[in-house]
From TrEMBL:
Protein name per its UniProtKB record: Short-chain dehydrogenase
UniProt key word Oxidoreductase: yes
UniProt GO cellular component terms: membrane
Family: Belongs to the short-chain dehydrogenases/reductases (SDR) family.
UniProt biased composition (Polar residues): 258-274
Gene Ontology MF: a single term: oxidoreductase activity
Oxidoreductase as UniProt keyword: yes
InterPro entries assigned to the protein according to its UniProt record, in alphabetical order: NAD(P)-bd_dom_sf, Sc_DH/Rdtase_CS, SDR_fam
Organism placement in taxonomy: Bacteria, Pseudomonadati, Pseudomonadota, Gammaproteobacteria, Pseudomonadales
C-alpha cells in the first residue's frame, strides 16, 4: 500500500503576491500548509477555504522570539515538516543623494536575518520529516548590480550565500535545498522603477511553475523573462563594463525623500512581507 499522507509545508510571506499564489497551488494539490505573514486576515481566509489543511502561524518574522514560537506551534501541531519555503521579504530603494542606512538595516533584517531565524526553527522539523526540502526565494538581481537596489541586492546576495553554504554543510545533511531566482513578477510590480523592467511573470504562472518544478528537487529554479536571461553573461563581464551597463539603465532622477518606498515585487523579485 502506497504512502498517501499529504506533505506538510511551511510557507512564509503567504499573505499576498507569489506567496499567496504558492499557497493556493499547494492547497489545491491537497498539501497541508502552515502559513505565515504579518497580516493574519488573508491567512484566515485560506483556512476557511481549505478546512483541515491550513495551520495559521502569523507573526513578525524579524523577531527571533516570534519565529521560535511559530516553530514550537508547528512542532506541537504536526511534529515535523517535509518542505519549508522561505518566501517573505521586502524591498526598499536607496537614494544615494540622501543615503539612509536605516533602509539597508531594515531590508537586511527582513530578507536575511528573518530568513535565518526561519531556517533555525525549520531545520529540526525538517530532519524529522519525509524527504525534507528547504526552499529559499533569492533573486536574479544578484547577477548584476542595478540602480538603487543596494539594500535589496546585498540582502539577496547574502541569502543566496547562506543557502548555498547550507547545501554543503554537514549540519543540514539529508535536507535538500533549492533556490528560486525570480526576475520580476506581477501583480505588484509597477512603473516606480527608474530603470527599464523586463517582461514579467504573473504571480499565478510563477507559482504553478515553481510548485511543478520543485518536484524535481533542482538546486535552482530561475524565473527569468527573456530580457533577464542576459543578466548571467553580463555578470561575467569586467567590472568596468558592468558599471557602464548599470549606469545606462538609469532613466529617471531618483524620487524625492517623500516618495513612498516600493515593495518587494518592484525589485526584480516576488515576495512582499505580507
Amino acid at each position: 500500500m502506497s504512502h498517501t499522507t499529504p506533505r506538510r509545508y511551511w510557507l512564509t510571506g503567504a499573505g499576498n503576491g507569489i506567496g499567496a499564489a504558492l499557497a493556493e497551488e499547494l492547497l489545491k494539490s491537497g498539501m497541508h500548509l502552515a502559513v505565515s505573514a504579518r497580516t493574519i486576515a488573508p491567512l484566515k481566509v485560506l483556512a476557511q477555504r481549505y478546512p483541515g489543511q491550513v495551520l495559521v502561524v502569523a507573526g513578525n518574522l524579524t523577531s527571533s522570539q516570534t519565529v521560535r514560537e511559530i516553530g514550537e506551534r508547528i512542532q506541537q501541531e504536526w511534529g515535523s515538516l517535509d518542505t519549508v519555503i522561505i518566501n517573505a521579504g521586502t524591498c526598499e530603494y536607496v537614494d544615494t543623494q540622501q543615503f539612509d542606512t536605516s533602509i539597508i538595516e531594515h531590508v537586511v533584517r527582513t530578507n536575511l536575518l528573518a530568513s535565518s531565524y526561519c531556517i533555525d526553527a525549520a531545520l529540526p522539523l525538517l530532519r524529522a520529516g519525509i524527504a525534507p526540502h528547504l526552499v529559499g526565494i533569492a533573486s536574479s538581481v544578484t547577477d548584476l548590480a542595478l540602480p538603487r537596489t543596494e539594500a535589496y541586492g546585498a540582502s539577496k546576495a547574502g541569502l543566496r550565500y547562506l543557502f548555498e553554504s547550507l547545501r554543503i554543510d554537514p549540519a543540514s545533511e539529508g535536507v535538500e535545498i533549492t533556490l528560486v531566482s525570480p526576475g520580476s513578477v506581477a501583480p505588484l510590480l509597477s512603473g516606480n522603477n527608474d530603470y527599464p523592467m523586463p517582461q514579467i511573470w504573473s504571480a499565478d504562472n510563477a507559482a504553478r511553475h515553481v510548485v511543478e518544478t520543485l518536484k524535481q528537487r533542482p538546486q535552482e529554479i530561475p524565473l527569468l523573462a527573456l530580457s533577464m536571461v542576459a543578466l548571467w553573461p553580463l555578470s561575467k563581464m569586467s567590472n568596468r563594463a558592468k558599471l557602464v551597463i548599470g549606469k545606462r539603465m538609469v532613466r529617471r532622477a531618483p524620487p524625492s525623500i517623500d516618495t513612498p518606498q516600493t515593495n518587494h515585487d518592484q525589485c526584480l523579485s516576488t515576495t512582499p512581507s505580507g
